[in-house]
């Protein structure tokens, strides 16, 4: 284990590390800064699992070999028009803790999939801090990205949309609510976003958002946590905290660049869900190899380096981050499924199940009842063809966790210690509908699990 690394990060197998350990500035977990190697090439910075699977997030430059016959679209069937891939933007925000390159040099885009046009740093004399100065970790200063930059009195240079956002006065706290860390935990906010098309560029999201149906709410869940999920809900939530979390603004920028209507291609999309160490990584890799498919995971590579930031946030903000990741992932799925079967490691069901389990307490009987709206799929999110829920006997799962030998995340420690939490996550998965999960007993050997999974895929995805 490298000092300062994320608990789940393993040492690199060979060669010099592109990461530099960053001293802890606050909180309990170390962060690692990306040293500036161009991630466009496909390597993923600061992903909890990156070193285990270095090539995984590479988007295939050439179409993979054809999948087995049973997965090919029927002759004569029409493939949807391929969606343009979302452009990976040049990062406006240097990774927290990273050293700034010289003015005029190229910033690496945070997305691993595409050779994005990287943005140029503003010219000398702009409001960026001196090259080589260290950025503090997000959240370490008061409310705004500008406040986080040492020696800078004004805001960092930003695009026109951010400037428009900045001009509005800060929204007043909701009755009974305090500013500060939890201040963005509010249901509605006035948001003006300009510049992009469709709902993503809706100049007044609030106006539209207020007309959105709100779920009748189950008494034990805070209403805000489970209001009917939609892209706009999460945009509003991220926008509320973008002032103090620069990464939220960067996520919003990526979202805006995703095509609005995500349509699945002609190949099947198969999602794998389950608690940690149930074998998702193992089986998704094997299925991808067997089917000559494309393997994607949530959150997608272009935002996964910010997980440690959002994992420490209140549930509402954390959920908005993972939910946004699902929408970004949807555009990758849309594109990839025009070329080959798509295998996905976690998607919406994870976001919902973990949120429900976190925001409830007690036994599974205390969960919102079956058929509650909290178990519904968001109407505007691309649906997969099949969702497989891997479940493993609890003792076997602990053995696998120990055998894996990685340091646990806080949540994994909680999952291990808190039997009830684990049960609530798993039961929430089981209650998800439209699409529901097909449960797979993943306790047998890897070969047997793969066989079962391939049979299910053949049964449900043949067309
Ligand atoms: N069927 C199996 N039988 C025995 N061991 C397995 C099986 N599947 C996976 N393992 C082992 O269990 C450990 C956890 O598996 P894996 O990393 O695939 O789980 P995961 O669900 O992806 O976990 P996480 O969500 O935490 O990343 C690994 O050491 C893996 O080799
Ligand atoms: N689509 C997703 C993916 C992940 N999450 C959350 C749920 C857990 O808090 C954590 C598990 O991730 P892992 O350790 O397996 O990489 O991430 C989510 O909410 N939505």
From TrEMBL:
The entry's protein name is: UMP-CMP kinase 2, mitochondrial
Enzyme class (EC, first level): transferase
HAMAP family tied to this protein: Thymidylate_kinase
Keywords for the protein's UniProt record, in alphabetical order:
ATP-binding, Coiled coil, Kinase, Mitochondrion, Nucleotide biosynthesis, Nucleotide-binding, Pyrimidine biosynthesis, Transferase, Transit peptide
Where found? Answer: Mitochondrion
Pro residues: bias regions: 61-70
Q: Which residues cross the membrane?
A: none
- Gene designation: CMPK2
């Amino acid at each position: 284990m490298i000092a300062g690394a994320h608990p789940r990060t393993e040492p690199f197998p060979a060669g010099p590390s592109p990461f530099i350990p960053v001293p802890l500035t606050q909180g309990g977990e170390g962060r690692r800064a990306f040293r500036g190697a161009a991630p466009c090439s496909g390597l993923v910075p600061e992903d909890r699992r990156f070193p285990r699977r270095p090539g995984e997030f590479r988007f295939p430059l050439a179409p993979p070999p054809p999948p087995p016959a049973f997965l090919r679209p029927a002759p004569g069937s029409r493939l949807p028009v391929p969606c343009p891939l979302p452009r990976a933007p040049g990062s406006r925000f240097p990774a927290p803790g990273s050293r700034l390159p010289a003015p005029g040099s190229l910033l690496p885009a945070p997305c691993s999939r595409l050779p994005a046009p990287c943005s140029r740093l503003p010219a000398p004399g702009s409001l960026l801090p001196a090259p080589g100065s260290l950025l503090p970790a997000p959240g370490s200063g008061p409310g705004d990205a500008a406040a986080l930059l040492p020696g800078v009195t004004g805001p960092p240079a930003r695009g026109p949309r951010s400037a428009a956002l900045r001009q509005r006065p800060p929204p007043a706290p909701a009755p009974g609510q305090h500013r500060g860390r939890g201040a963005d935990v509010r249901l509605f906010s006035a948001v003006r976003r300009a510049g992009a098309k469709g709902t993503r560029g809706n100049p007044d999201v609030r106006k539209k958002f207020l007309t959105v149906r709100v779920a009748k709410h189950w008494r034990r869940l805070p209403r805000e946590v489970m209001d009917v999920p939609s892209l706009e809900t999460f945009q509003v939530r991220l926008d509320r905290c973008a002032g103090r979390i620069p990464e939220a603004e960067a996520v919003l920028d990526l979202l805006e660049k995703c095509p609005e209507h995500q349509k699945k291609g002609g190949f099947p999309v198969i999602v794998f869900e389950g608690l940690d160490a149930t074998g998702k990584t193992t089986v998704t890799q094997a299925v991808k190899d067997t089917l000559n498919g494309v393997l994607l995971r949530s959150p997608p590579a272009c935002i996964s380096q910010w997980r440690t930031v959002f994992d420490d946030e209140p549930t509402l903000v954390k959920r908005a981050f993972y939910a946004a990741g699902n929408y970004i992932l949807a555009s990758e799925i849309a594109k990839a499924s025009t070329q080959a079967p798509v295998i996905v490691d976690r998607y919406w069901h994870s976001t919902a199940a973990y949120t429900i389990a976190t925001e409830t307490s007690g036994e599974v009987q205390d969960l919102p009842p079956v058929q509650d709206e909290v178990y519904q799929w968001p109407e505007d999110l691309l649906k997969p063809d099949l969702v497989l829920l891997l479940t493993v006997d609890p003792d076997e799962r602990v053995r696998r966790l120990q055998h894996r030998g990685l340091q646990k995340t806080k949540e994994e420690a909680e999952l291990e210690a808190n039997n009830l939490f684990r049960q609530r996550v798993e039961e929430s998965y089981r209650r998800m509908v439209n699409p529901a999960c097909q449960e797979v007993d993943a306790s047998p050997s890897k070969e047997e699990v793969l066989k079962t999974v391939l049979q299910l895929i053949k049964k449900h995805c043949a067309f």
